[in-house]
Write a structure and sequence with these properties.
The protein has about 170 residues and is an alpha+beta fold. The chain has 4 helices and 6 strands; from the N terminus they run ααααββββββ. It has 3 domains: about 55 residues; about 45 residues, no CATH class; about 55 residues, Roll (Nucleotide Exchange Factor Grpe, Chain A, domain 2), CATH 2.30.22.10. A hairpin with a 2-residue loop joins strand 4 and strand 5.
Length: about 170
């Protein structure tokens, strides 16, 4: 009897049949696979439509470009004026304005300022100097920030450069 079933399977396969009429599990499996295939085709069509929209959006510059152009104009204006002619109050105002614009540009790009205090973390901080621990501050903690660091979506782009409190040599 086993031999007859095998012959029946071989004959069905030879005729190009993909499922045998006598096996109800095969019919259920094929129906499920057809439904999954239809869902995948629909999802692929949605993804192609999103891709077309994305390609259309790439015809425009990144949203930060207009802000960068304004920054470039301000910097060009500052460098055109001689250092002797620049009013210190006006220069300080311009630098504060530039700093505010940079913070805004970073925010548009999901970049955040990294300005930690407390213990030094080698992943987030670059030690550029040290000073003796004083005022009860523990060795290995940040004494001062030399240059801010930056993170993008939680990933460190540039480590914060710090001066670290160190133990005084014996």
């Amino acid at each position: 009897m086993i031999r007859i079933i095998r012959l029946g399977e071989d004959e069905g396969l030879a005729k190009g049949e993909t499922s045998m009429p006598w096996n109800p599990l095969s019919r259920l499996r094929i129906a499920r696979l057809r439904a999954e295939n239809a869902a995948l085709r629909a999802e692929a069509a949605e993804l192609r439509a999103e891709q077309r929209l994305w390609r259309a959006e790439t015809d425009h510059p990144h949203p930060v470009v207009p802000e960068l152009l304004v920054l470039a104009d301000w910097l060009a204006d500052l460098t055109k004026q001689g250092a002797e002619e620049t009013d210190p109050e006006q220069a300080a105002t311009a630098l504060r304005w530039l700093d505010g614009r940079l913070i805004r540009l970073f925010a548009l790009c999901d970049v955040a300022d990294l300005h930690d205090e407390g213990p030094v973390d080698p992943v987030r901080h670059e030690i550029v100097g040290s000073r003796p621990a004083d005022d009860g501050r523990p060795a290995g903690s940040i004494a001062r920030t030399v240059r801010h660091g930056y993170v993008w979506r939680g990933r460190v782009l540039r480590r914060q450069q710090v001066i670290m409190y160190a133990e005084e040599p014996d």
